[in-house]
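User: Quick sanity check before I run a bigger batch. Here is a single chain. Can you write out its predicted 3D structure?
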Amino acid sequence: MALTPELLAYYEQGREHDRLRTGRGRLEFWRTQDVLRRVLPPAPARVLDVGGGTGVHAEWLVADGYTVELLDPIPAHVEQAARLPGVTARTGDARDLPVPDASADAVLLLGPLYHLAHRDDRVRALAEARRAARPGGVVAAATINRHAAVLDTVYLGLYQHEPERQAAHSAAADGIMFSPGHGFTAYFHHPDDVPGEFADAGLPAAARHGLEGAFWLYGDVGEWLDDPARRELLLGAQRSMESDPSLLGVSGHMLTVARRPR
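Assistant: Done. Predicted structure follows.
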């Protein structure tokens, strides 16, 4: 991942941290938590949170009793995450992890694949996660779905603007998303391409989970998330259809999980 000035500027604003803690971004956060709590080994297993940002997931993992080491290429992220009680944080690149072989019970890539436009780099990052995981350990990676920008720009009312519309359809065509508003490139996966990247990294039998379903496009989703009882119903509704192949691409994000072969 090339740390361009535009990418650094975006993440140094703390926008990813806030995105997952406010508004409809909470749906992605809580669904990620929901899936991980079902697939991770019991605490106090050791979790390597690669590209963990400011520690938005590391924080609850520590609260659940896990031992968490966070790696991120953005120095400001590492500085902020290191202030969280129980979180060890340092700089690192997903494609060249500074950790020993088989040193983690689970390795999370909840962001790095968003910014690796070349397939070889994505497979390399997944292979590094496999190397760092113990035999039988979990590797989980988040991806942005191919049509997310088209869906999101319509939801946000931006689709009628030519630059946003062209960028969204370009991403739908080849996965390369250049954000006119932020000035950096992201990569959007087709859901059917992800298991092949996992397999080429030595991680067969990957299971896919659509995180938000269609619910992130509902105008009143924030009201559901604000109400604990309705929120649990919403999370359960998406859980019931999270791996239906016909619905995977409607989610903004997908979480794919595999285990390092023994």
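The radius of gyration is 17 Å.

User: Great, the batch can go ahead then.
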